[in-house]
Amino acid sequence: MQELFNAILQGALSGGVYALFALGLSLTYGVMRLVNIAHGDFIALAAYIAVSIVANTGINPLWALPAVVVLMFVIGYLLQRYLLNQTLGSDILPPLLVTFGMSIILQNGLLEFYSADAQSLQAGPLTTASFSLTQDISIGALPLLIFSVAVMTTLAVSLLFKKTPLGLALRATSDDFDTAQLVGIKHFHVYAVAMGIAFAVMAIGGVFMGMRSSFAPDVGPSLLIFSFEAVVIGGMGSLWGTFAGAILLGVAQGLGYMIGPGWGVLTGHLVFLLVLLFKPEGLFSRGHK
Amino acid sequence: MLTVKQLTAFYGDFQALFGIDFTLEHGECVAIIGANGAGKSTLLKTICGQIRVPADAIAFEGRPIGSTSTDRITEMGIAMVPEGRRLFASLTVEENLLSGRFSKRTGKWNLDTVYQLFPDLLERRHHLATQLSGGQQQMVAIGRALMSNPKLLICDEISLGLAPIVVKGIYAALPGIMADGLSVILVEQDVDMAQRMSNRLYCLMHGKVALEGVSEQLTRQQISAAYFGV
Questions:
Q1: To probe the interface with B, which of A166, A176, A183 has the most B CB atoms within 10 Å?
Q2: Closest CA to B145 of B181, B90, B116, B105
Q3: Under a CB-based contact definition with an 8 Å cutoff, are residues B21 and B204 in contact?
């Protein structure tokens, strides 16, 4: 019983990083119906940018995070503004092909530049610190921090959507982009900002991923799969739904690891398939689009 | 203030407009009527930039806007109440109105003045716009356009699908809207209403201007002849 509770708890905490991965995908799909196949590779890129900063300055990766976030925002903005916006239209294939191409370029670029050796971000004592809840259950400081940041990031993005003029523009453009232009919204700029925000959140996820585990240039596609699964489990277009989906994915994996080391990823996929089979609109879908 | 010269427009290979000439003076209300497929909506789409045409074909306050983007045209002071209202479905009434402010134009119209014009909207301002009755939704669409403080307001078939009494109520607001010199283009299915509300009237047929004149001087016979081409 205790063991089960522990698996659920650790799984839920590790779902925090999935939430950070998935939020960006949920956001870009929600606002511009764009699925970025290179999503996971850009998360990997963020982690590698942090590697470079840490290698050159020797600071804790946690302090490198703000710089990575800003840099990724700029990359996301420019990418959408000058490349992906040109691919949007009634045909859904061009953005898929272009981002698929970027995924290949990024993986090979990272391989060329950083080699195939696994890297990690050393966060010092934070990596090993933990709190004891009971005799048998303890919580790692880093997973708890990541989980808290995931909650705060989701909250911040959803407040941005609900309470700010930018959020209004994002929601209006998502509803009806022809009419959005008619009221004077610069939709290409709005899309670019949305992608920038998605990339900023992916940057947080990427750096934390690097602090928790080692990674190599080919990690991207599996991150994309986890992000997709969280978004689909939670329901398209709902930020908190995506968060819940990510936590559920984490719990499913945690329970799987209880069975055996090979089972974690598999049980995650199984839960995803079950949701797709029985509630394809997602568990927490708002029932809108 | 608005001049359309020898305008032709295409949807791909299909030509929808054949040399339209159209003018609108400051403070004027001009109605455009015509059967389905006559080219009314196409003409409006070219004016607000949803269909691009040669820049010089359309001039607004002396500036060519034929190839200008929709959001820029809105910023210049042309606001559109689109056919079918096209409210933002996931936004509340008030948020829909606020979306009209993205053109960053200032003037008489703000939330308060729009609620004064359409008091029905005030108590429902936190409802989703799509939960309102058709007439109230039309008020939101007009209010949203006014929130951008336009110089020219274009109304595309605002009576469509609404009960006559509701239409009357909405048109009753028009003189107040035009009070301080706003120009209006009305596209209407309801020919009587169009003639009554406008200073001048254009009737389109098969993408050409079939009839043009001062609204109160046009006879029923002239209009039916132009409308049906008989």
A1: A183
A2: B105
A3: no
A124 within domain boundaries: no
The domain spanning residue A228 has which CATH number?
Answer: 1.10.3470
DSSP class of residue B22?
E
B66-115 confidence digits (pLDDT tens):
999 999 999 999 999 999 999 999 999 999 999 999 999 999 999 999 99
Residue range B2-228 in CATH 2.60.20.10: no
Residue of A nearest to B77 (CA): A184
Partner-chain residue, chosen from B71, B82, B99, that has the shortest CB–CB distance to A172: B99
**pLDDT score for A288:** 46
Burial A10-43 (b: 16+ CB within 10 A, else e): bbbbbbbbbbbbbbbbbbbbbbbebbbbbbbbbb
φ, ψ (nearest 5 deg) of residue B164: -50, -40
Q: Which residues of B touch A (CB under 8 A)?
A: 48-50, 69-71, 74-75, 79-80, 82, 86, 88-91, 95, 98-104, 144-145, 148
Burial (Cβ within 10 Å: 0-12, 13-18, ≥19) of residue A201: buried
Mean pLDDT, residues A154-182: 95
Q: What is the rounded average pLDDT for all residues in chain B? A: 94
Closest chain A residue to the Cα of B90, Cα to Cα = A175
At residue A286, the pLDDT reads 63
Token pair, residue B15, equals 């030509």
Nearest to A182 among B80, B90, B104 (CB): B80
- For chain A, the domain total comes to 1
- Direct distance between the N- and C-terminal alpha carbons of chain B, in angstroms, rounded to an integer: 33
- How far are the Cα atoms of A180, A188, A251, B84 from residue B101, in angstroms, in the given order? 11, 18, 45, 21
* Residue A123 is assigned to a structural domain of this protein: no
- Put simply, the answer to whether B89 touches A171 (Cβ < 8 Å) is no
In this prediction, residue A237 carries a pLDDT of 74
Q: Report in angstroms the alpha-carbon separations of B102 from A179, B15, B81, B91.
A: 12, 33, 15, 15
Instruction: Decide: helix, strand or coil at residue A14.
Output: helix
Chain A residue closest to B85 (CA)? A179
Q: Which residue ranges make up each domain of chain B?
A: 2-228
Residue A108, domain extent? 2-117+136-278
Please identify which residue in the block is written with the tokens 């959507």.
Answer: A161
Q: Domain for residue A183, yes or no?
A: yes
Q: Are B34 and B211 contacting, i.e. CB atoms less than 8 angstroms apart?
A: no
Residue A289 lies in a domain: no
Task: Work out the angle between the directed axes of helices A2-32 and A187-212 (0-180°, nearest 10).
Answer: 160
**What secondary structure does DSSP assign to B85-104, as a single string?**
----TTSBHHHHHHHGGGG-
